[in-house]
Amino acid sequence: MFQYYFLLGVRSLRRNPALTALMVLTLAIGVAASVATLTILHVMSGDPIPDKSNRLFVPLLDNGPTEGYTPGDKPNDDQMSYPDAINLLNGKAGERRTAIYGIGQSIEPERKDIGAFTAGGLAVTSDFFNMFDVPFLHGQGWSPAEDKTGADVIVLSRKLSAKLYGDANPVGQRMKLGGLQYQIVGVLDTWKVVPRFHRIIGNDDGAFEDEDELYLPFASAIRHEFQRNGSTSCTGDVTPGFQGFLNSECTWIQFWFETRTAADRAELQSFLDSYATEQRKLGRMKRAAPNMLYDVREWLDHLKVVGNDSKLSAWLAFGFLILCLVNTIGLLLAKFSVRAAEVGVRRALGASRREIFTQFLIETTVVGLVGGVLGLLLAFGALALIAMQSKALTVVAHMDWFMMLTTFAMAVAAAVLAGLLPTWRACQVTPALQLKSQ
Fold first, then answer.
1. What is the domain extent for residue 356?
2. Phi, psi at residue 225, to the nearest 5°?
């Protein structure tokens, strides 16, 4: 019987084609607007590393001055000073740890058809790649021993490797970066993390920036005095020179811990508190502010990666969908009202109200399916237009299988919801009155 009613629903689309087209278009526009906004919110608020997001932690230590400070104020900055980063690296807390800062250096390719250009990347420690499950296409990262010596080795992104060496495996070759020779030890596979949680601060597009182009040892970048590419916050006097800057309380480094299990968070917090206590004995961290630990999801919330504007846009889109549903209800009432005679005849021939209700509800489901297909196409178009607005939106304005299925489910659910009142009204037709009017 369901198949029969479904075929009747398909045929009913040809009745009053103008009215049917208006219903489908109204429903499709409402669904497309909602799904496009919901897709962006879904991508922005997703867990970028679900297998270990509760084992990766950002520590925040407040090393700001006491002048103008009121207990309970926000920390001095969301980054860390060089002395603290080195101390935490040497402290051996957690299973892995890494310090990160952005760099930008000129590359002088050996290929004559490519001129010198500037590439951006990160100075990190060897634990970085295992901590964040970074995929390799060729080679591997460098060793902890090379961390200690500040070896001049480098890992390239797949895109940069293709630009410099084509499809060849460049591992073992040397390249010129910032006027210095670096040996290539690895090439990453495509690694697009959304949101880009490991390095949000100091980027133009924050959590939705494209991949970094290269990675080199933190100690090597420091040894060669590579300038930082990112934000820096200084609250006190800084001695002139690069070493003076390193010794200062300026915050410019992102730090991450990885613990063996989520339960080790308490132990890591205890280590952080003990470290801050020792530093206060040395005359630092005079604010005595609480020392914070954020896992990945908490870190994204702390930095407000999904802002109130994005949430408000989603609510407005759903409000628009409700408005479209109200219009669809009116159109369905008009469509079903002209079929009162048909309903009356069917009731007189023995059809129950339940059968009439089922038939008309399946017809509205067919409208929902057609509206879902059109809504999906309109949603793809809307996302393409949104992606054209900025580089950051290009990263988030794409639809996955989950959102595709959501589009159809939303369209069908919206159509069924809109069809409940018109279908119920159709079932109330009195057969005797309709037959008498004929």
1. 2-45+307-437
2. 55, 45
Please indicate, yes or no, if residue 50 is contained in any of the structural domains: no
Q: What angle do CA 98, 297, 299 make, to 5 degrees?
A: 55
Q: Whole-prediction pTM value?
A: 0.73
Residue 297, judged by CB atoms within 10 A of its CB (0-12, 13-18, 19+), counts as middle
- For 194-273, where are the E strands, in sequence order? 214-217, 251-258
The residue from 275, 302, 329 where one domain ends is 302
State yes or no: pLDDT of 211 exceeds 70: yes
| Pair 257, 94: CB distance under 8 Å | yes
- d(CA 77, CA 33) in angstroms, rounded, equals 38
Note whether residue 83 is domain-resident: yes
Distance between CA atoms of residues 46 and 186, nearest Å: 29
Per-residue pLDDT tens digits for 269-302: 999 999 999 999 998 888 888 899 999 999 988 8
- Four-CA torsion 79, 80, 86, 89, nearest 10 degrees: -50
For the chain, the domain total comes to 2
CA distance 361 to 367: 10
Q: What's the mean pLDDT when you consider all of the chain?
A: 81
Under 8 Å CB-to-CB from 231, ≥6 apart: which residues? 79, 201, 202, 252
